[in-house]
Amino acid sequence: MMRITINKSNACGIIKAQPSKSHSHRLLIACGLSSNDCIISNIVLSEDIKATINCLKTLGKDIEYINDTVYIKNSNSKLAEELVFDCNESGSTLRFFIPIALTLGKKVIFKGTEKLISRGIGVYQEIFDKQGIKYDIFKDKILIEGKLVSDIFKVVGNISSQFISGLLFALPLLDEESKIIITTELESKNYIDMTLDVLKLTNIKVIQEENTFTINGKQTYIGNNFTAEGDYSNASFLDSLNYFAGNNVKIDGLNPNSSQGDLIYQELFAKLDQDYATIDLKNCIDLGPILFAFASLKHGGHFINTKRLEIKESNRILDLKDELEKFGVSVLVLENEVFIDNSSLHAPINHLSGKNDHRIVMALAIMLTIYGGTIDGFEAVKKSYPSFFDDLKSLGVEVLYEQN
After folding, report:
1. Could you tell me which residues come within 8 angstroms of residue 366 by beta carbon, excluding any fewer than 6 positions away?
2. pTM
3. What is the pLDDT of residue 164?
4. Which secondary-structure segment (H or E) carries 289?
5. Residue 146 to residue 129: CA distance in whole angstroms
6. What amino acid positions are annotated as catalytic residues?
7. Are 340 and 295 in contact (CB under 8 A)?
């Protein structure tokens, strides 16, 4: 485990936005499924993106990474009888590739960390049971045997949009028309919109009528040359510094017309900057850690639709509660809401723990630019933003690395 100390600092300068991990996953997969060679620029090899590229290689794709660009050659490599997809700790990779792999009708193994596998694939299990697909779930892998067939898929929309996106990628490859019917209110809708945008870019047609998606079979992906968008989710951490005295950070490379749901962070920061506010996380669940930290440093806050934070890389509600309390923040956790009271805010009394969660590490780091302190396990940022602390240093923040 690695340890990092951040001294009380002011940040000033210009940073290029990190590529959107969500957009990068989708472009890579759609191009990997296409019938022609593709080039995708502005890609950073975070641990999650490496997992998606490795899974595309398992599908027989010839992929080369040079500088910040991925070159995909869609050769007709013969696939093994049993395919092994190593997803490491990437929930997007696992949930996107399961239905894609099942279009092949082969035995497949999905490997991952125990934490990833424990997060579950419940939506898919219901589909497997209905279609007679065999599966066994172990601590660090999932074995699946069978072939996905065209159907009417009834899916809940309040667990994870990744299951819906996974089906949207796979169903165009089947023989007949399929439908996805969302049976509850759809949360994280913007991530579905991003998937639909990428599908449209790569020649796939999906008809959406309210909460029903109709997808014709025997469609062909046609890729091209694309550029991954700058990431609003990661940008939110650095941009939050601008709301505290002495900081002046500009972030270049963000698309103001993006379908990324986390674009809303600017509006939410403004609300929390003014007063105690109620914030709905339904469509921006990944902003939870930085919004909790921001509220702790400002006027407190009330957050609703928080439950899905429990099934991320960590239990982000309880783990953040543990760390925020080291700053004297009072955190009240209810069934699907969180109340933050910062009336006793002070510098952290102990070392902080990153909880092996990249977003928790980054949120705590922002708080430490105000108070100073130490984080154990800072290396978790490699999952999505490997250069996060280097970027902080380039902005003038005092960052000290040490081996724990």
Report:
1. 237, 240, 241, 290, 293, 294
2. 0.90
3. 95
4. helix 288-297
5. 11
6. 286
7. yes
